[in-house]
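thread: overnight batch results

M.L. [08:02]
morning all. the overnight job finished for the chain we discussed friday. pasting input first so we're all looking at the same thing
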Amino acid sequence: MAFPTNRLRRLRKTESLRQLFQETRPVASDFILPLFVKEGTKSPEAISSMPGVNRHSLTSLVREASSAFSLGIPGVILFGLPRSKDPKATEAYNKNGIIQKAIRILKKELPGLVVITDVCACEYTSHGHCGILDKREVANDPTLTLLAKIALSHAQAGADMVAPSDMMDGRVGAIRKALDNRGLKDTLILSYAAKFSSSFYGPFREAADSTPSFGDRKTYQMPASNSREALREIEMDIEEGADLVMVKPALTALDIITRAKVRFSLPVWAYHVSGEYSMIKAAGRLGWLDGDKAMGESLLAIKRAGADRVITYWAKEAVKFFK
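M.L. [08:03]
and the structure it wrote out:
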């Protein structure tokens, strides 16, 4: 039956009715908060291109993570800025490196918090690329050894979950083997399985001081045009032992989130990335739109597309917004 028997506006007549028929209802446990921690800093440092986001000291990191956890946010994902860098990213797997120290202190102070760590080399290499260079090319297979060492050091420090973001072929299998061989079978792997090459990563590169010193990352991150290739990437990572997968960026890959959710039985997460966050913040500050409402709509779209969890810099605000 059609109009006039069916009138869908009946479902929208009042605020109470709209709430009653709300199909997508985000809650605190839907969000994961990304946090930057910097070696040597004694107080939070504001990130100019990401209003409201800071590089933290170990002390302020605990304070921010505790604040998020008290709101019901179940976990954080950590990104480290080391004191020094070199071509082989040796600080990335230093047992006393900044991320390793951050993991230990968070697990001590907030044992119930899920601690996830980004596993990549770009923040630790002097050249800013995500792996070991062979001349001016990122060498895939030597990088696998490096990534396994990084992930192992994070797991040994107490990380609940390691998240390789480099997009090397075979990295999930290499990490799973390294963890299992050292008795760390319970450490989860969250794979950045479909990570597209994107202009929306710009503010993050300032935040993490990870801009490549030459070239770009198009030989290892995915072209934005390819959806079938994205599903192949996800499938390969699942076969290699990923416990859950991520799509990044979120807003420009909503179709991939949906297709992955339908096709695969594993949890599908999405990363609401720095540029997606910052552009809304900027427009809100200029008065061009209501920043909070626009951010809320963005997160609703990501959840509606099928994401089980959303990594977002707006996690704490989102909990309050959706109450």
